[in-house]
């Protein structure tokens, strides 16, 4: 696997005309941020050696390079999920490649279900911490030379970046929430009882991504900022049905606020 990572990084490096230190992962329905990237060039996942291919609607499936907030960045428009049948090594392959390309800061975004009764559809939740419910761990197996066998996770989501986001949100008048993200396998949405369980265990939002990516990024020493768009609600007294299409619509409506915060964070970081 490590040889494949090196091969992919080398292929990209030969074709890159920029030197990004920041990467962004765009979740379900959040691809519009890609249109904010200037001086861009991109590679479809299908053309990149060893790269998995996203199979989920709302995930375009290309790696974009360019500028955002006046800084060189790279962005994944579409991510990979465990429920698609990929192993955790494949799900987190891009983060390994990012490290080889010199990425130092990773912004992760996702659409998630809110189970905090104070949340509403369209809210932005800055991720303070996570709970890992995936049945397979991305660091399972032989340890990669990019980090320790037992990496510390007491600050998976960088406090300095969270504070920066809070300050920017206050300046521009965007309300943000904070909370704990629960990462689950999917692809089913949660039952009301599952929502209530995750809430009792300390979760504020739940989704089917992000956690493996963050674990591997931290193993590589990459700083992480995470943000969830609350696209549906669950676990309350009245059951609420949800569809993937509704999630995409809610994410699409809220993403201009997320884009504004991220763009300014990148400009100042």
Notes on the structure:
It is an enzyme of class 2 (transferase). Its EC number is 2.4.2.1. The purine nucleoside phosphorylases catalyze the phosphorolytic breakdown of the N-glycosidic bond in the beta-(deoxy)ribonucleoside molecules, with the formation of the corresponding free purine bases and pentose-1-phosphate. Keywords: Glycosyltransferase, Phosphoprotein, Transferase. This is Purine nucleoside phosphorylase. There is one protein chain. By secondary structure, this protein is an alpha/beta fold. It has one domain: Nucleoside phosphorylase domain (Rossmann fold, 3-Layer(aba) Sandwich), CATH 3.40.50. Helices cover 31% and strands 25% of the residues. The chain has seven helices and nine strands. The chain has helices at residues 2-15, 88-91, 93-100, 159-172, 192-200, 211-219, 244-268, and strands at 22-26, 38-44, 62-68, 71-77, 105-114, 124-132, 176-183, 205-207, 223-233. A five-stranded mixed beta barrel has the order 5-8-7-6-9, surrounded by four helices. Strand 3 (62-68) and strand 4 (71-77) form a beta hairpin. The longest helix has 25 residues, at 244-268. The protein is globular, with a radius of gyration of 17 Å. The chain starts with a helix and ends with a helix.
* SS-derived structural category: alpha/beta
For this structure, what is the CATH homologous superfamily?
A: Nucleoside phosphorylase domain
Name given to the CATH architecture:
3-Layer(aba) Sandwich
Domain count:
1
Largest sheet: 5 strands, mixed, barrel
What is the radius of gyration?
Answer: 17 Å
Helix content: 25-40%
Strand order in the sheet with the most strands:
5-8-7-6-9
Low-confidence region ranges: none
Proportion of residues in extended strands: 15-25%
As for the CATH topology, it is Rossmann fold
The H-and-E topology, N to C, reads as HEEEEHHEEHEHEHEH
Measure the end-to-end span. Answer: 32 Å
């Amino acid at each position: 696997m490590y040889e494949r990572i090196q091969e992919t990084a080398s292929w990209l490096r030969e074709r890159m005309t920029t030197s990004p230190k920041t990467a962004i992962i765009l979740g379900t329905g959040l691809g519009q941020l890609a249109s904010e990237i200037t001086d861009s060039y991109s590679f479809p996942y299908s053309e990149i050696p060893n790269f998995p291919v996203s199979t989920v609607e709302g995930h375009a499936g290309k790696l974009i390079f360019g500028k955002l907030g006046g800084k060189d960045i790279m962005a994944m428009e579409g991510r990979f999920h465990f429920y698609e049948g990929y192993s955790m090594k494949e799900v987190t392959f891009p983060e390994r490649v990012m490290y080889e390309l010199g990425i130092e800061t990773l912004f992760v975004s996702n659409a998630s279900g809110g189970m905090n009764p104070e949340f509403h559809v369209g809210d932005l939740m800055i991720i303070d911490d996570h709970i890992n419910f995936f049945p397979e761990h991305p660091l399972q197996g032989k340890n990669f030379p990019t980090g320790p066998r037992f990496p510390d996770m007491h600050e998976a989501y960088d406090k300095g970046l969270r504070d920066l986001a809070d300050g920017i949100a206050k300046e521009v008048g965007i309300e943000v929430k904070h909370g704990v993200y629960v990462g689950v396998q999917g692809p089913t949405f949660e039952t009301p009882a599952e929502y209530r369980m995750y809430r009792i265990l300390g979760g504020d939002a739940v989704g089917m991504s992000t956690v493996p990516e963050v674990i591997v990024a931290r193993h590589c020493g990459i700083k992480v900022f995470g943000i969830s768009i609350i696209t549906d609600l669950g676990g309350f007294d009245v059951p609420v049905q949800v569809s993937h299409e509704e999630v995409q619509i809610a994410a699409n409506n809220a993403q201009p606020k997320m884009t504004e915060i991220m763009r300014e964070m990148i400009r100042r970081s």
